[in-house]
Amino acid sequence: MIFPIGDDQVQGGRKPYFAYLFIGLNLAVFIYQALMPPPVLEQFVLKFGSIPSEILQGKHLYTLLTSMFLHGGWVHLIGNMLFLWVFADNIEAVIGNFNFILFYLAGGLAATMAHVLAGPGSTVPAVGASGAISAVLGAYLVLFPASRIRVLVVYFFRSFYMPAIYFLGFWIIQQLISGFFSLGTITDRAQVSGVAWWAHIGGFAFGLVAGWVARQMLEKPQQLGRGFSGDDLV
After folding, report:
1. Domain encompassing residue 161
2. SS3 state at 159
3. In CATH, what number is assigned to the domain containing residue 53?
4. Where are the beta strands (DSSP E) in the chain?
5. Which residues contact 132 (CB under 8 A, 6 or more apart)?
6. What is the pLDDT of residues 31-53, one digit of tens each?
7. How many angstroms separate the CA atoms of 93 and 147, rounded?
8. Around Cβ 159, how many Cβ atoms within 10 Å?
9. pLDDT tens-digit map of 199-234
10. How many structural domains are present in the chain?
11. Residue 8 DSSP code
């Protein structure tokens, strides 16, 4: 298995305050969850996780947002926060702090809706920040395709660099394969695997579009000169 542990940093731009704030919020909510007795935790997840069948009936729509800040365990949390820590800071640096908040939340909403539409009859609550983080990955691929991603090979405990276009391209291919295999049995597979593949795919697609729009705006001469240059987007 390989994991991203770093990348080329944008020089200048906005400080990634909100990327780190989202990491802190996710950690705080998870600690709150961990302190709950199992029966209380189950009800908490049922109340604030997104259940596709209920969303399509117009019920508990607030869970489209709240579900982004819940996680199913330490492995789920750490994996998501690692990806957020590596990739989100560059995005916020170039699109700005307020725009990043809107982008992150909108990406999470798009991801959850993709999951809902892929399994409309599911009664399993979906939780996790991976949909919003997938949007970050999609935008990163468009804005920084040549950025070097430092990856750790767990088996050998060694790291090396690879271009973002290869790392993220391989990642989304994995999601697409798993997502298409899950079609038709998504409710059962969600219960077994615990992975909302179509949330990842939907979030990534949203990020690609948002990243393209951001790149068009940032490459205009009047948008540059704020501590970074168009070269940072190559």
Report:
1. 2-233
2. strand
3. 1.20.1540.10
4. 2-7, 148-153, 158-163
5. 68, 104, 105, 107, 108, 111, 203
6. 999 999 999 999 999 999 999 99
7. 14
8. 14
9. 999 999 999 999 999 999 987 644 443 444 445 665
10. 1
11. P
